[in-house]
Amino acid sequence: MLRTKSLITDITEVPREWIYEHYLQLQEKLTGQDVKIKSVFNKNDKTPSMCIYYASNNTYKYKDFSTGKSGDAINLIMEMVEPKLTTRGETAHKIIEDYNNFILNNKDDGIRQFKKKSKYKVVDFTIRSWSNFDEKYWNKFHIGSKLLEFYKVAPLSQYKLRKEEEDGSITEQVIKSTNMYGYFRKDGTLYKIYHPLVKDYKFIKVQDYIQGMDQLTMKVPYLIICSSLKDVMAFSKLGYKNAEAIAPDSENTMIQEHVITALKHKYKAICTLFDNDPAGLESMKKYKEKYDLPYVVLEMSKDLSDSVRDTTLTKVRETLTPLLKDKLMHQEQLKQEDFTHA
Predict the structure, then answer these.
(1) Residue range(s) defining the domain that contains residue 76
(2) 43, 62, 174, 322: least surrounded by Cβ within 10 Å?
(3) Taking the mean position of all CA atoms in its chain, how far away is CA 214?
(4) CATH number at residue 312
(5) What's the CA gap between 15 and 223, in Å, rounded?
(6) In the chain, how many domains are there?
(7) CA-CA distance, 189 to 332, in Å (whole number)?
(8) 211 within 8 A of 232, measured Cβ to Cβ
């Protein structure tokens, strides 16, 4: 008697982990762990910058930090497959077809057990005194001690990481360095650790926080959304009287819609000013598409703070001011002379 494997007709029957394993040709089965690979969208990616991660809704998603692309498995295939697929329905049909071909020609490896793998969490830290190294590093960006204090940046000598293993045991690591910084909220809560001289893991996220929110006055007409707290501080050094700045957790983390809606009620105009690399441009386009926020591309160094470091405050201000005027005043049809700097 002939037996055939059952073919599926619904995208919900395709295991999401199979989509990533098959199309990305992963070398390991996905069972709840996070996997980092080189970007499939950026051929120049020399170090792995694309993360396949087990999300809070118990399904896998991806985030490519080199290009800013992110989403679920269907988004991934829409971006990957050539020629490009234009709809989720078309993409689902392609995935179903490929999966049916796969199960016809391969042995089913059975039901897979999933368990979200525990991750290290920051549980303690030690603040140290400022040093000559700190002064030399931050002064390159014209960021001094008063500004660092205002934005609650403090030097750290060490911090402790802890995670619970699958067998219930506890693993701890103590990270020590002479050049790392803690980013704090006004109430003293640590939300991020910054390693400026580390190539792959410059930031350790401790908790969600829109950087610079505690420092907003909401008494000026314009708000600039930058890519990092360092850019926010560099922006404040430019001396604009009528604008202040914030930054999301990262360029690839969208500020939530209810926050943007509330900010639109507080400011006459808002624009984004991220890095001018592919990831920054992609992120600014997403803010434009989702929130109708214009964006400014500063074609100097990669980001605002690097532009300040590589030229002068005056040069950056002269280049940036007309770009901001164009975007902000077009947004609200304001008079050009309303936007001034010190």
Answers:
(1) 11-105
(2) 43
(3) 20
(4) 3.40.1360.10
(5) 43
(6) 3
(7) 36
(8) yes
Spatial neighbors of 187 by CB under 8 A, at least 6 apart, are none
CA-to-CA distance for 133 and 144, rounded, in angstroms?
Answer: 13
* Interval 144-155 mean pLDDT: 96
**Predicted pLDDT of residue 215:** 96
pLDDT digits (tens, 9 = 90+) for 197-234: 887 678 889 999 999 999 999 999 999 999 999 999 99
Q: Are residues 236 and 334 in the same domain?
A: yes
pLDDT at site 337? 46
Q: Provide φ and ψ at 18, rounded to 5°.
A: -65, -40
Q: Whole-angstrom Cα distance, residue 38 to residue 50? A: 6
Q: Are residue 303 and residue 342 in the same domain, yes or no?
A: yes
Alpha carbon 65 to its chain's center: 7
Distance CA 111, CA 139 (A): 57
Rounded Cα gap, residues 39 and 69, in angstroms: 10
Maximum average pLDDT range among 90-94, 279-283, 312-316: 312-316
The verdict on pTM exceeding 0.90 is: no
Do 239 and 323 lie in one domain? The reply is yes
pLDDT digits (tens, 9 = 90+) for 235-286: 999 999 999 999 998 767 889 999 999 999 999 999 999 999 888 898 899 9
In the DSSP assignment, the letter for residue 276 is S
Is 75 exposed, middle or buried (CB count within 10 Å of its CB: 0-12, 13-18, 19+)?
Answer: middle
- Separation in Å, CA 99 to CA 83, 93, 103, 104, 136: 19, 10, 6, 9, 56
Answer yes or no: are the C-beta atoms of 206 and 190 closer than 8 Å. yes
Helical H segments across the chain, by residue range: 16-24, 73-80, 88-105, 132-139, 145-150, 229-237, 257-266, 278-291, 304-310, 313-332
Q: Rounded to whole angstroms, how far apart are CA atoms 324 and 76?
A: 34
Q: Which of 105, 130, 157 is the last residue of a domain?
A: 105
The token duo for 230 is: 């360092």
